[in-house]
Amino acid sequence: MLGWIEKQFTCGPQKTSRAAMKSRITKKNRDQRGFGESAAPFSTDALSGLADLDTRLPPPDADVQPAYGASYKKTKKLTREAAAGGGLVVDEFGNKRPHYWGHRERLRTRFLTGGHKAMPEYEILELLLFNAIPRIDVKPLAKRLLATFGDLNGVIAASEHRLMRVEGATPKVFLQLQIAEAFAQRMGQAKILKRDIISAWDDLISYCRTSMAHRETEQFRVLFLDRKNVLIADEEQAKGTVDHVPVYPREVAKRALELNASSIILVHNHPSGDPTPSHEDLGMTQKIASACLSIGVGVHDHVVIGKEAEVSFRSEGYL
Asked: I need a labelling partner for 85 at 20 to 30 A (CA). Which of 1, 29, 132, 222 fits?
């Protein structure tokens, strides 16, 4: 602070000494207050406070950094000039512009006129990313996400922690992916809710695969059916780790009583991708079946969802 004050009163190329500056400031304050030469200078406490503030300020040549940083690492890949491989396009008038200008509008037009079937996955993902990241080319980010998580299903189901480790991903990107997942699950659920599950078995499997096949941890769901095998509730009972999910048979039976269900279908996923039931799966299924049998509720099936296939306990003779 004192250093700043000195600069304000520096005359010409020569700087006034710190002691002389204090004297000049003191005299100026006395004159302004009309006390003349007998007025008291700055108090010792005031000068001590100025000196303390001076020590807290960074040196003039210090490289000061903000206390917070971006959620991703800024590299050339994220600049407009190099976002999709770099390069500027020179038009007929000699004006230079990034080569991807107009790409978003062209992609939207292709989607609206020709649909999504002819479009590669990274372009479908780009359309989602447009809402999360303005202005820059998002094609590199779309391709990095697909390379990291395998396909669109893996990207949509990715956890926030893993997604944010991909260069260029932001919380808004995660939000857009979560919205897309919510739409997909609601559409799949609408096909089976209030319907005879037995006659809509393929739709049920499709819905379960959409909701669970690409999750990174195990999830246990229970579908509650009435006397006509109509789905009356679809509830997630528990979440677990990569190879285990805690399930309590008494809680499953209690919930079936509360919903007045006549039978249930158990569904859980294997994040490893292999739907083969484990010994723990077989034992847990028998415990739930026994708990439900005591209250007159049947276990219609237990389906294990993998990444590419599923296993039905009833079809395999386990029930």
From this structure: 132
pLDDT in tens, the chain (319 residues): 545 554 544 444 444 455 555 566 555 555 555 444 445 567 888 888 777 777 777 777 777 666 555 555 555 554 544 444 455 667 677 776 665 667 888 888 899 998 888 899 999 999 999 989 887 888 899 999 999 988 888 898 888 888 999 988 999 999 999 999 889 888 888 888 888 888 888 888 888 888 888 888 888 899 999 999 999 988 888 777 766 778 889 999 999 999 999 999 999 999 888 889 889 889 999 999 999 999 999 999 999 998 888 999 998 888 8
Domain coordinates in residue numbering, the chain: 2-56, 104-185, 195-312
State the residue for tokens 């500056």. 21
The span from the CA of 301 to the CA of 314, in Å, is 6
**Is residue 155 classed exposed, middle or buried when 0-12, 13-18 and 19+ CB atoms within 10 A define those classes?**
buried
pTM, to two decimals: 0.59
CATH number of 195-312: 3.40.140.10
Number of neighbouring beta carbons within 10 Å of residue 245 = 19
Residues in contact with 27: Cβ distance below 8 Å, sequence separation at least 6, in sequence order = none
3-state DSSP assignment of residue 217: coil
Check for a shared fold between 104-185 and 195-312: no
Pairing of strands 298-305, 263-269: parallel
Measured distance CA(187)–CA(226) in Å, rounded: 22
> Please, are residues 122 and 146 in contact by the beta-carbon 8 Å criterion?
yes
CATH topology of domain 104-185: DNA polymerase; domain 1 (1.10.150)
| Closest by Cα among 93, 306, 109, 316 to 208 | 306
